[in-house]
Amino acid sequence: MNPNLFRSAEFYQRRYHNFTIILIIPLTLLVIFLLSFSFLGQKEVTVSSRGEIMPTKVIASIQSTSNNAIVKNNLKENQLVKKGKRLIKYKETIESSQKNSLESQLNTLNKQKVGLETLKESLKRLNLVSLK
User: Fold this and answer.
1) pLDDT score at 42
2) What is the full DSSP assignment across the chain?
3) Rounded distance between C-alpha atoms, residue 108 and residue 94, angstroms
4) Phi-psi region of 92 (alpha: psi -120 to 50; beta: other; left: phi over 0)
5) Residue 1 pLDDT > 60, yes or no?
6) Interatomic CA distance for residues 50 and 66, integer angstroms
7) Which domain range does residue 24 map to?
8) What is the DSSP string of 27-60?
9) Is residue 17 part of a domain?
10) Measured between alpha carbons, how far is 6 from 15 in angstroms, rounded to an integer?
């Protein structure tokens, strides 16, 4: 073949516009890309299931300042709470006995206070009489 023919535009036109160049080579490159992506790409796996979420440890426990039994509990999940609304009602037997005990202690202490004030006044009078 004549080497001058390879330099003509007609030869290049026929060489690069045939079936192999236009269709098969791009499809082959596409298949190679898809296969390499399928082997090298990361897969995301989503699992749908039903279950219950439980904490590994309790962060905070809510405790009552009173050891009384609960009579009525008005607390509910996701409940909107307003100021002044009664949430929990306790049994009042122990609190009333504690109240009575504290009142009797208060009365005793008041009597002791009155006695000490009387003693203080008498000591002041005694010091005044002895100074004269």
Assistant:
1) 77
2) --TTGGGSHHHHHHHHSSHIIIIIHHHHHHHHHHHHHHHHSPPP-----------SS-S-----SS-PPEEEE---TT----TT---EEE--HHHHHHHHHHHHHHHHHHHHHHHHHHHHHHHHHHHHHHH-
3) 21
4) alpha
5) no
6) 39
7) 5-40
8) HHHHHHHHHHHHHHSPPP-----------SS-S-
9) yes
10) 10
Q: Are the C-beta atoms of 11 and 5 separated by less than 8 Å?
A: yes
Task: Calculate mean pLDDT across residues 45-65.
Answer: 79
Task: Write out pLDDT tens, residues 100-125.
Answer: 889 999 999 999 999 999 998 988 88
Give 39 or 28, the one with higher predicted confidence.
28
Instruction: Examine residue 118 and state whether it is found in any structural domain, yes or no.
Output: no
Average pLDDT estimate for 2-19: 63
**For position 76, what pLDDT does the model report?**
86
Q: Per the structure, how many domains does the chain have?
A: 1
